[in-house]
Amino acid sequence: MRETAPVFIITGEQGQCKTTFLYQVLGLMTGLDLRLRGVIAPGHVRDGRRSGFTLVDLATGRQEMLCSTDPSPGCEVHGRFCFRPEGLALGRRALSLQDTEETDLLVIDEVGRFELQGVVWAGQLDRLCTLPHPPMVWTVRRRLLDTVIERWSLEDPVVVDVGAAGVLSTASDVMDAIWEWRETHPVSPISPAPFINRHAAGDLPLMADAASGVGAGTPSIFRRRYTASD
């Protein structure tokens, strides 16, 4: 058993629904008493072009506008996007874990060219990758995949291509990694993450709206409830 758990990288081209795929994977885990941390960033489109992103803290359900193509006072400008201070602060708090062993899964949506330039979540990623961390799921554009892996010295990342991978098999692999992490690290009393709902994530489709009530036909990894006594 290794101290550092796998990093799963959901990848695809721009506009290929990486965040939707991620949301569906997380939806299968709803009701499993997981200590879920991190951020998910559903995008907005205006006139057929990406116009901004909302940021959702998975641990609290709180959301803020992360960035927009519309100028705003006090923003950090990166590329054509203006990053709002409230959104950046929310994300940096969500990714600044005081104790990585208090987390079952850490999600970062997404790691991209701004992080490679040393801004947005770069500082948090630098710290996380020097610690024994729990399983992580990142989303990364395909053209940046090799550069991101090299930049953060990721050893044997699990690459999940949305054009070929299945949501159920991906979620099962992530749950296996979580269970392995739990077997080798003490478990404190759980405060399960609320997980984002449809409204918080811009009405992204959930593959399973009631994962806590999965049936006998569901793989056993999902039928198990991960509790403080496990």
Automatic annotation (TrEMBL):
Example GO molecular function: kinase activity
Give the organism the record lists: Methanoculleus frigidifontis
User: What is the name attached to this protein's record?
Assistant: Nucleotide kinase
Q: Keyword set for this entry? A: Kinase, Transferase
One Pfam match, by short name? NTPase_1
Q: Which domain of life is it from?
A: Archaea
> Per its UniProt record, what InterPro entries does this chain match?
Nuc-triphosphatase_THEP1 (IPR004948), P-loop_NTPase (IPR027417)
| TM regions (residue ranges) | none
